[in-house]
Amino acid sequence: MAEPAAFLDLTMFRRVPLALILTLAVQTGAGLLWAGAAAERIAVLEQRVDHASAIAERLARLEAEMEAARESLSRLEHALDRGETPSGVRS
Length: 91
Prior knowledge:
By secondary structure, the chain is mainly α. The chain is 81% helix and 0% strand. It is rod-shaped, with a radius of gyration of 36 Å.
């Protein structure tokens, strides 16, 4: 029967070069830094999208108001072309 100490052969750990251990540690650290930077970039992009959607809503309201103003102006122009005094206009 195998002993538990034989399962954890500690002599294998002595054979792993220090350079390999350092390389893995540096790569892990670099990966964590990259992930943190990516998360920050995503957060900035999400803020931009939120700001852009608020601007889009304002733009839609302004377009609707401009359309109403154009219709009102068109009615006034037609009334003036017919020689009528538009309602709400004082002489």
